[in-house]
Amino acid sequence: MNVRTSIAVGLSAIAFLSPNAIALIPDSPNFTTIPSPRLPTTERSRSAVTPSPYLPQPRPLGPSAQFFSPDDGEIYVLFRKVRILASLAVTFAEIGELERALEIARTFTGDWPGPPMFYEIATNATQAGQAERLVELTQTLSDEHRTIVRQAIAETLAEAGEIDRALEFARSLPDEYADRESSDIAMILAEEKQFDRALEIARTLSDNSNKAKALGYIAKTLVKAGQFDRALEIARSLADDTQNTHELYRIVEAFIQIGQRDRALEVARIFPDDSSKVEAMGDVVIAFIETEQWERARQVARSLPDGTDNSSALLRIARSFAEAQQLEFALEFVRAISNDSHKDYILRETAIAVAEAGQLERALELARGIPDESDKAEAISEIAVALVEAGQLERALELARSLPVYSDRAVVRARENASLEVDPIERDLYDWPRAEALSKVAVAVAEAGQLERALELARSLQVDSDRVMALYEKADDK
To answer: Distance of alpha carbon 305 from its chain centroid, rounded?
Structure first.
């Protein structure tokens, strides 16, 4: 069943639209679409706050009109009517006609478009100075819709700087939402650099998750404002609970972003569990590498906590050193990785990075020392490409041909012609990895502009020439 059919079936099955409401809209095909609901657009709203399950997501009030066409008959008309009614309700609220807005809104009893529509109505009413009047008019709504209305009022007032009124509405919500909205208000205050008031609200929250979220956001904002000591004080207050690691990560990232790597390291070292501490310290090490502070990065990397699996952090550190062409440092931390599969992978990436830097002999030496045959073959094939780019085509071909063949194409075809069973994996890997490396060489020749030579090479090698042909045809079109 396709998406359009699914939506059509859902709309037909859910009787959420009153027949009286449907009758309000004519059967005209010239309906206009409505805009998406207004949603908070601050950084806090986008990334720092987990929205209530009842709050509208950043999407239109209904499914996209592309799912329907006039050929869908009654379903198309129903869909368009619903969107127009929702638009009318929101517009009535914007011009202060709350009774008419709610008259339309009450005809919707399902999950769509009720919640986002009530949120939008409440937002518009609050902006028009009619928040209290709207609350009075919505006393007969369901608990869910009344909650949405109060949430929208609280957020709109907070965005407008009316903090006391916003808190009043937030604290009138059911307990599971009151702390959420109060936390959101504390973050808004932090954005406005009203840090004392923001902290006062955050520290009164009873829900630990919302309190940590607000405190973490305030600390991050303090970092941006240059108030490092206050940010560190908040970080230390969060370090007692393993549930707060996400917020501590935010503080580490904030310090790194403004170049305060030593303070970021100070926060990373107070993480409540070693696993998170290793990853956070790894982020700081990479920040030192990116600013070419090689010895400082090495010093911090060597101080990673013992007794925990630090392979992931060491992998990232080794890769960063390799990408920065600090080969000896990269190899030092590759050797420290306990997970063999990770070690083979980073040896491969290091060899490729060294080849791309033009150190082809050193890259080849590293590649040949990789224990895993698959990673070794991948590294050698990429070195062959680097040789082509360096103008050493014959050596590249020699290197690609030196790779082993794990299955034989001729054998596979013979078995297929004889109607014998062929392992699908064997079919997919015929002549691999040799053929793959030779194909890469041919493509590299084509990308270097030698299209005729590349096509000739691909055909003579009897490897897949599709990509070479595509480059050839693209050049021919020009």
So the answer is: 29
Give pLDDT < 70 ranges for the chain.
1-79, 109-113, 307-308, 341, 405-432, 460-478
Are the C-beta atoms of residues 336 and 278 closer than 8 Å to each other? no
Collapsing DSSP states into helix, strand and coil, what is residue 307? Answer: coil
pLDDT of residue 113: 67
Rounded Cα distance between 311 and 470, Å, is 41
The four Cα atoms 357, 297, 344, 378 give a dihedral, to 10 degrees, of -20
Q: Which two tokens stand for residue 449?
A: 């502009």
**461 within 8 A of 436, measured Cβ to Cβ:** no
Q: What is the pLDDT of residues 13-56, one digit of tens each?
A: 333 344 444 444 443 333 333 333 333 334 444 333 333 333 33
The two structure tokens encoding residue 310: 């630090």
The Cα-based distances of 326 to 211, 297, 357 in angstroms read 43, 12, 11
The closest of 350, 281, 270, 289 to 312, measured between CA atoms, is: 281
The pLDDT assigned to 232 comes to 96
Distance (Å, rounded) from C-alpha 365 to C-alpha 347?
A: 11
- Scored b (16 or more CB within 10 A) or e, 60-81 reads bbbbeeebbeeebeebbbbbbb
CB atoms within 10 A of CB 469: 16
